[in-house]
C-alpha cells in the first residue's frame, strides 16, 4: 500500500491501544504507543533509502528482505527499542504494538499486484495477489474517516469494530470481483495461457495482461465488460549474435527489470547511430499507458552503453529527461 494508507492504519492502532487503561491513563505511554504504531506501520518501507543507489538497486531491494520473515521479527524489536529508549518507556511494553503494526504492513502488501518477497531469506519468489491497488481510495477514506470520528467521539469499540468488519468484508468482495474478472478474461480469450491481474482505481476495475501460446495481450475489465488494449508479439530476446544486446543485457537497470517483470514485450529502435532496447511491462497500466519500463541505449559503433533507465514514467518526455547520455 501507499505510505499514507499505512500511516492511516497506524493511527487506527494507536486509537485501539487506548482500550488499555494503562495506555489511556498515561500520556507518555500513549505517546510512545502512538509513535510505535506509526513507525511500525511504515518501517518495512524504510528500504526506500535504496533509491539513493539508483533505481535498479531500489527495484531489487524494495519489498524484498525488508518484508521477509527475518525482517518481520527484527523490525518490531528495533522499533520498540529505539522509541522506548528515546521516550523513556520500557521497550517491552511497546513490542506487541510494533509487532502488530509491522505484521499488518507486510500482510496488506501481499494483496497488491506488486507483491513482496515475503518468504525471504528462504525464497526470492514474488508473492502478489492483485486484489487491492497500491492506493485504494475506499480503504484510505475508511481509515482516516474512522480516526477522525474517534477523535471527535472517543467511541473506540463501536467505531473500530465496525471498521474492522467493513475492511474484512471489502477484502472478501475484492477477492470475489478479482476472480470474476479473471474468469471473464479466460472466457474472452479461449487460448489464454497465463493471466496477470492488477486492480484499477475504480470500483470493479481491472487490468489484465494475457500470455497466449503465440503472443501477448492486455485488456481492461470494467464491471464485467472486456475492453482490449492491444496485442503484442511474444518475441524471444535477441541471442548471442546481437552483440549490442549482449552488452545491453549486462546493464544493471535491464537486469533488475527482467528479474522482476513476469510479462513484457520489447522493441528495438535505431536512430542517430544509437540502438534503443525498450522493455515494457504489460501488467501495470495507468493513464492510458504502460508506465513500468526499462530502456538501454547502446552506441552502434563502439558498443558502449550510453544511457539506461528502469522504473515508472508516465510520459515520453519524462522518460527522455531520465535518459542522461554518457559522453
Automatic annotation (TrEMBL):
UniProt key word Hydrolase: yes
Record-annotated membrane-spanning stretches: 69-88, 94-114, 126-144, 150-173
Keyword NAD: no
Record keywords, A-Z: Hydrolase, Membrane, Transmembrane, Transmembrane helix
Source species, domain of life: Bacteria
GO molecular function: hydrolase activity
Signal peptide: none
Name the UniProt record assigns to this protein: Metal-dependent hydrolase
Classification of source organism: Bacteria, Bacillati, Bacillota, Bacilli, Bacillales
